[in-house]
Amino acid sequence: MAEGRLKILKHSPSGKDVIVAFSGPGEILGNVSLSSEKPHFYSAQAVLDTKVLAIKSDALRSFLSSDPQVGFEVLRKMLLVADQRLTSALRRLVDLAAERAEHRLAYTLFTLSSEVGRTLLVTRQEVAQMAGTTTETAIRFVSRLKKAGVVRAPRRKIYIVDRTKLGSLIGDLPQA
Questions:
Q1: Please, which residues have CB within 8 angstroms of residue 82's CB and are 6 or more apart in sequence?
Q2: Counting CB atoms within 10 angstroms of each CB, which of 19, 28, 52, 122 has the fewest?
Q3: pTM
């Protein structure tokens, strides 16, 4: 992606969209479909004005094989992205199974702020989807964070004022 921000969505069988990740400038999208001829099961939705560069799989394979040094670096970056997403997905799975909704919400906000900065262009509904809880629970939680001075939350945005306090709600503070 050249510029902007995308949210990566998975459509569930029940018709509900689940936010899988956010992607920003310099990130490679669709890297799984490069190694497989299977169709891509995710969709992307722009959060900001976005420019995406598209390269056909055959052209990319040809380019990567023509310059092994560049090919190695591109593949290394793709593996890094895949590893980060897998690690994040596994953490979310454990959280969904074992942690309270407030912990999952705090972890979601903390992780997003690590990835994209203190200004999160997300709705409470989107945060709830990412944390596997209800929109109402996310609204109440963000309201408590506002009262505690941890966040500011104008419409369709959450600004993290105090990441240390937010991190303390998680317990085993992840690396920022």
A1: 31, 32
A2: 52
A3: 0.63
